[in-house]
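Hi,

I'm pasting everything inline rather than attaching a file, because the server keeps stripping attachments. The sequence lines come first, and each chain or strand is labelled.
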Amino acid sequence: MPGLHRTKDIPKNISSFYSAFTQELASAFQSKQVQQPLMANPDPEMSGGGEQKAAQGENTEAGKSAVHTCQQKAKAWLLLLLSYISGDMEVFAEWMKKQFFLLQLLDWVLRGAAQVMFVNNPLSGLVIFAGLILQNRWWALNGFVGTLFATISALILQQSRGAIAAGLYGYNGILVGLLMAVFSNAGDWYWWLLLPNIVMSMTCPIVSSALASINSRWDLPVFTLPFNILVCLHMVATGHYNHHFPQVLIQPRTELANITWAEVNVAKLFTAVPVGIGQVYGCDNPWTGGIFMVALFISSPITCAHATIGSAVGMVSGLALAAPFEAIYFGLWGYNCVLACIAIGGMFYALTWQVHLLAITCAFFCAYLGSAIANVMSTFGLPACTWPFCLSALTFLLFTTETNTIFKLPLANVAYPERNLRFFWKLRKKEKLEREEKERDEEKWREKEQELLGNDKEVLRMERMDGKGKGDGMEGKEINKMMIQEEEMMEVALGEVSSMAENV
Amino acid sequence: MPGLHRTKDIPKNISSFYSAFTQELASAFQSKQVQQPLMANPDPEMSGGGEQKAAQGENTEAGKSAVHTCQQKAKAWLLLLLSYISGDMEVFAEWMKKQFFLLQLLDWVLRGAAQVMFVNNPLSGLVIFAGLILQNRWWALNGFVGTLFATISALILQQSRGAIAAGLYGYNGILVGLLMAVFSNAGDWYWWLLLPNIVMSMTCPIVSSALASINSRWDLPVFTLPFNILVCLHMVATGHYNHHFPQVLIQPRTELANITWAEVNVAKLFTAVPVGIGQVYGCDNPWTGGIFMVALFISSPITCAHATIGSAVGMVSGLALAAPFEAIYFGLWGYNCVLACIAIGGMFYALTWQVHLLAITCAFFCAYLGSAIANVMSTFGLPACTWPFCLSALTFLLFTTETNTIFKLPLANVAYPERNLRFFWKLRKKEKLEREEKERDEEKWREKEQELLGNDKEVLRMERMDGKGKGDGMEGKEINKMMIQEEEMMEVALGEVSSMAENV
Amino acid sequence: MPGLHRTKDIPKNISSFYSAFTQELASAFQSKQVQQPLMANPDPEMSGGGEQKAAQGENTEAGKSAVHTCQQKAKAWLLLLLSYISGDMEVFAEWMKKQFFLLQLLDWVLRGAAQVMFVNNPLSGLVIFAGLILQNRWWALNGFVGTLFATISALILQQSRGAIAAGLYGYNGILVGLLMAVFSNAGDWYWWLLLPNIVMSMTCPIVSSALASINSRWDLPVFTLPFNILVCLHMVATGHYNHHFPQVLIQPRTELANITWAEVNVAKLFTAVPVGIGQVYGCDNPWTGGIFMVALFISSPITCAHATIGSAVGMVSGLALAAPFEAIYFGLWGYNCVLACIAIGGMFYALTWQVHLLAITCAFFCAYLGSAIANVMSTFGLPACTWPFCLSALTFLLFTTETNTIFKLPLANVAYPERNLRFFWKLRKKEKLEREEKERDEEKWREKEQELLGNDKEVLRMERMDGKGKGDGMEGKEINKMMIQEEEMMEVALGEVSSMAENV
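And the predicted assembly:
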């Protein structure tokens, strides 16, 4: 769900580490010695940053010796496979561009389903739909209809193709569809509900686009604000006492909840963690929540970890604020924190340990805010939706500080935590190199100056000043330059991989 | 009501074609040959773009032959009359500038009354006041006081003279005055009410100016937001249980409305359309609504059509969402949609059929939003006011798309739908001409290149690139240039017409 | 509390009038003739602008004659003393920079306590804490803890050092701490309350920074918005029916208040004025309110005057809107108006009589808004906090007008009313001088032209145009230039004062 302005040309500069083991792979495939791909499965935790290090390590080794063991080849084979299904599956997206339109649409819908959790990955989307079907088939249907029509509406309204292809117009649709079914009081399989569902999900792109016009001024994404607005709109426009589309009755708390600490069920508190993740899609089945965790893990382990931390933080906050145990078990304290923790923890900020702490702070703030908003909204018979997440994440993204360890990524460069991290590292490295270079230049000039001390010192000083000026100028343009260079590297890498594939 | 930044210099270049046949007319009147002005009445639909074409047609004709039939003169006479009273009555406004201050103030107040419906026309304002008096004389008085003091306050606070003269500081005043009277529980002719009425309407320009500071960042108008804020402020600050200024009691719905479809009164549903238009000013009399439609028609038929469509859409939405029939008959579902449909359908967007569809979509969205906001506001004992219109229209104005058939006018160029449309057409024509010219230039260069193939080809290519560069540069500045050129064209046209008139 | 963007380098250019009497003082101290410093106390009203005039007057005198009477020396000695403790105590702040960290922190905390009233003065802060202790020691403790942790949190989060040192991160903390204690239903000395108190006050800098990112786009301060958000958050998240942190029960009015005008207590109405000032910090003790007035007077008499006017306006508004007398006596109608009147009356606008009227208008608007917001918030069991002040002051700061007597200071130049006024005067003087200079240049050129009439007129005209161009260019940069020059003057002045001090 990273902002509506991530256009298709940006994600191109994907995982340049691919080129790292292409030559090695070429030989591995040629010698047909790949024997135990599934058994030699490397720790999946490595799929993010791990792969790269491994690949780089092998690469340098490969340069030294031509001896390849069978195990190395298997590992390489697996890394390739992982590179294809993890992250944002860019290679797959590229391949999809040449396919039949309906197949493309399905890809966009699946990506849209996963983008609720900031994951731009059709496989994750598929797993998520599986989880939804396990929970409730009527809800899953409504979710699918919502995503589909939101995407179609975005196409009709001629929104940015890149954003549509990344699922950025679908994720509000799936939430609108799902939650309208969840909060309907008419029971499952009340087919008339599809009508407002379609209308509301088709309105999503309009509201998204309008909000993006505002938020883009601060380089902020719209998050799930369109969903919040539209579901609240539908629920409060109809209400509990409606003939056509009645909503479940939600009323404000008016007496002391009966909380006895002896009655707390520790096992249920633990299941509240996956349930909290499931509640992002309105699901209270812990297995569904577990399936969603798998979906997150496929694309980005960092995201998965932060989702779990967020849900746990929410649960703890609920206990601290003396919430009724049922609400905690039901995951109502978790889902906003899950989203807030993912958003801050590596998605829109580059993950450092300071950012990690900030993400946890944000999750606590979000839990607090969640309780407040739930109480306020209940006055109008409304659920809290994901307002707490949106407001807390926006607050923490607007926050500025003078430290350089908290680096907010430009919205156009947001991808997934692992890639964001790599972007951040490269930027830092570049900066460091340039600083060193400048220092070295300074050093040289000083030496030269001392040599030529006598005759033409004045001329030299002027030259030196020019040299300095250029160095300073470079700093300003470094981000743009870096991006261009990364893209070039990428194209080279992709070319190598494809040529290798042909050899196989 | 188009934005506060339409300053006086912009509307100046209005329908300069009016002057096109004034001298001609002068002679026509002198020769006393005007015989059947009312019978030869041209379709009023032509009052917008039609007139101009007619005028242009005559103009070219006049250049060719000096033979003028009696009918043509009558037609011209009528067109002149129409041109004086339709649109924004610019000629009248110019004439007013030299009059007594109190007369000017009356003009501004009348324009302010009409600006509620985006109409900058004192005659429409007069008709609207007639409608208000038909409804309730006490309300009409309050409305007048509100408009008057809002305008005076704007003068005291030294706001833009152009905006004041266009009634842009009055329309919130009339609504504040009217609705404070409508929602007062103290009964009619409770003279103390004029006190908060004056205070609140004098606060209007401050709130308007403050909101304009924010909205202008997105080139958005403030709509009726100041009215909404101030009336809600007054109502909730005093409330139903107040000794001085009690408000009518508004409470949230707490049980199922009794809706029997057999009881629906189709005739009443149809009268709900004019009543919906009347409810923009808080009036439930269908005749008042009808009078308002006439007022709209005088200034701009497109506005009138969209008002009717909007009201109908609101009525249908009410039925779809199972609203109590009384609320629908009472026009409560219509008035917001009326305003939203006018605003989107030709006022702030140039009217194309895509925009027309967008306006209808916006009206539906507005109806939905209206129901939602009414339910939320009733919790605080407040009516929905025109919040739904403001929010939905702002959303649809913030919406961006990649198609060029949905063209949002720069706020400074917003006038009335017919003129906006002409502005849009000219812009398109200009763009087309420039594109063709560029293509022709390219063609020429290509030919020349082939001729000179041998010797000095290199030199020529450089020249050509310079030519291209200039062509590209033009695109960026096209709007400004267009406006300047439009003015120039206008002056030339005026010169020709007047010389022609002398010939006659 | 003036905005978060006032960095440390700006307040440096303090009271350049110091230099005005340094030489005079030097001699006064050398001759050891200072005898009656306290008796010759000049009217404290002069501490603001008065001093300067006096100083300037003496300065010119001093230039003429070397005869210094004993009285003059005493006066100068007192002015120096006043200059040290009034305003923003810049000299003290400079001296503090070299002190022990904990002492600095205490300075920041005291300034933070005073910044609630826009006063950047540790002495005022100390007096305010005295007032709080008089009211309730538990509240005072909570306030201190809030300020302390908000400041520490800002340090941890690496916010601008200048803003922290001015107490701009503390004032929300003290309000959060105080009001959480005031609205807690758990009674005084419920030590667990310090936990959410610390959490919430540590969140203050995050919310402040986020809001500043938005408000800075319109060059607006964040006021007490972070406090409003966080206290409402805490209160509504826990609510009246909470086991850990119960809040006092606040319910909407549902019946006519029993108001008998005969029962009005005029004496109590008068005490409502200081009580209103005390209610800014949640205190209902009139003596505490009186102490706060003293604290304001120390730093800025203009601020003190506007606080009193604001409180009186609020009281009158309460009577006009038929509020229950108890609420008026309790100061609930006053505190928002106090803050709004201070903010508009000289703090963010340069004080002219138009601005003074605007401040009173704003106070009335604020009272109205206060009643409205209190009614709305009571639906959620919340108090109005200082939302009315924030919203009304922001509205009046966003308001634009074409008159030049209402001058909004750039946020970076906001200090205290007296200094703001001096800034405004200098700006005006500068503008006038430049205008005159330009006119004189024009005159010269005209004369020269007439002299050289014949031969080289054409050349001269070109030169003249160049001259003009430069003159125009200057106008654009005048503010920046002025600031730089003021800084230079300041450094010279400070240098003189310190050298003089060494002589003593």
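The CA atoms of residues 275 and 286 of chain C lie 5 Å apart.

If the labels don't parse on your end, tell me and I'll reformat.
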